[in-house]
Amino acid sequence: MRIAHVTDTFLPRTGGIETQVSDLAMRQAAAGHDVHVLTATLGEGGERGGVVDIERGVAVHRLGARLPFDLPVNPVEARLIAATLRTVRPDVVHVHAGVLSPFAYDGARVASAQHLPVAITWHCMLDGVVGALRVGARLTGWSRRPIALSAVSAVAAERVAGVFGEPVAVMPNGLDLDQWAPDASALEEPAHTQSPGPLRLVATMRLAPRKRAVPLIEVVAAAAARLAPGALRLDVIGSGPALGQVSERVERHGLGDVVRLRGRLTRDEVRAAYADTEVFLAPAVLESFGIAALEARTAGLAVVAHRGTGIASFVIDGTNGLLVDDDAGMTEAIVRLAGDRALLGEIRAVNRRIRPDQGWDGVLAAADSEYLRARFLVQR
I want to staple 169 with a disulfide (CB 3.0 to 4.6 A). Which of 150, 225, 251, 257 is the partner? Predict the structure, then answer.
């Protein structure tokens, strides 16, 4: 099958969508498909305007322009996308969308106009914009187009269904479960041997307002105030525009001995960090999936996250971690785990022993199903 992925952002940018689309495309190519990626993101050397990179067996069409702030758009992107699709002649076009995805939406519009099978996957939560998008979809005719709609989790799919008024499939993000599984020695570790030292917390995220890195520091500060000195340790992995605010908040609360800002780490370095931690904190409330939380769960960490997010698709409260209603609940969960090491040990034992369902085999099968549905819809 010849597959064309359309995404605003792609490698060398780093982030959830970029990593997932890259991994999906690479695995499809390894399975024997002819895979192309159309993106507005420039290459490592500034490649743009139609330059094609071959990366891990995938043809990456760099259709972006050099713009201020490296914005992933191109004023003539619709024309470039149309020309590229006519050249590639894909069997299916897989569009990866966020709330603001002008390149992806142009790709979906152009592909639909060429009567190509189109599947769109939303990698975001549409909270706050469902009503406006519903009106826009009706006025522009989008709600009547033969497109296979999906989202990365059930909660994200509910929002998309609210826009288009029809059922939306779930095509989750994928993870190399073998890569993130704990060592064999950890699998055999009995719960009662958990370290009696500080509760070792970790949070991996882009330090941006949507991920709520600053409220995370407030949550940990509130928990630390209720526990004995030295009872907590938090590693924050990641970087971003909120780094200065996070540093200021750590200093304001006197958490210099509690919080370590680790910066951006490679996957191998993140896995090494998880081997020395016990609890993963996910403070975002608009988390459509939570790939970092899935990595941590697979590595054997207990996960503390908000209810109503995509993380609830692979974290059962009291089994794989603790789900909370608000920031006060997250503080309470930290205090609870610090004082109940037996519960922590039981949760971690489950996560070390039972793998989640979001391995790549299942994700590739879900993608194939969406592609078949897209082809059926366009041929009706």
Answer: 150
pLDDT at site 195: 56
- 131-163: pLDDT as tens digits: 888 988 888 888 788 999 999 999 999 999 999
Peptide bond into 12 cis (omega under 30): yes
Domain spanning 2-174+359-379 has what CATH number? 3.40.50.2000
Looking at domain 177-353, its CATH superfamily turns out to be Glycogen Phosphorylase B; (3.40.50.2000)
Nearest Cα residue to 146 out of 380, 376, 367, 377: 377
Q: Where in the chain is the domain with CATH 3.40.50.2000?
A: 2-174+359-379, 177-353
Four-residue CA torsion sign, 211, 214, 215, 218 = positive
Residue 53, token pair as written in the block: 């990179």
Residue 90: name the closest of 59, 62, 54, 49 by CA: 59
Q: What number is the average pLDDT over the span 200-229?
A: 96
In angstroms, the Cα distances linking 199 to 220, 298, 335 are: 11, 19, 9
Q: Please give the pLDDT value at position 186.
A: 54
Instruction: Enumerate the β-bridge partners of residue 170.
Output: 151
Q: In whole angstroms, what is the distance from residue 85 CA to residue 2 CA? A: 11
Calculate the dihedral angle through the C-alpha atoms of 235, 238, 239, 240, rounding to the nearest 10 degrees: -120
Q: pLDDT tens digits, residue range 68-120?
A: 867 788 889 999 999 999 999 999 999 999 988 999 999 999 999 999 999 99
Strand pairing partners for 121? 96, 150
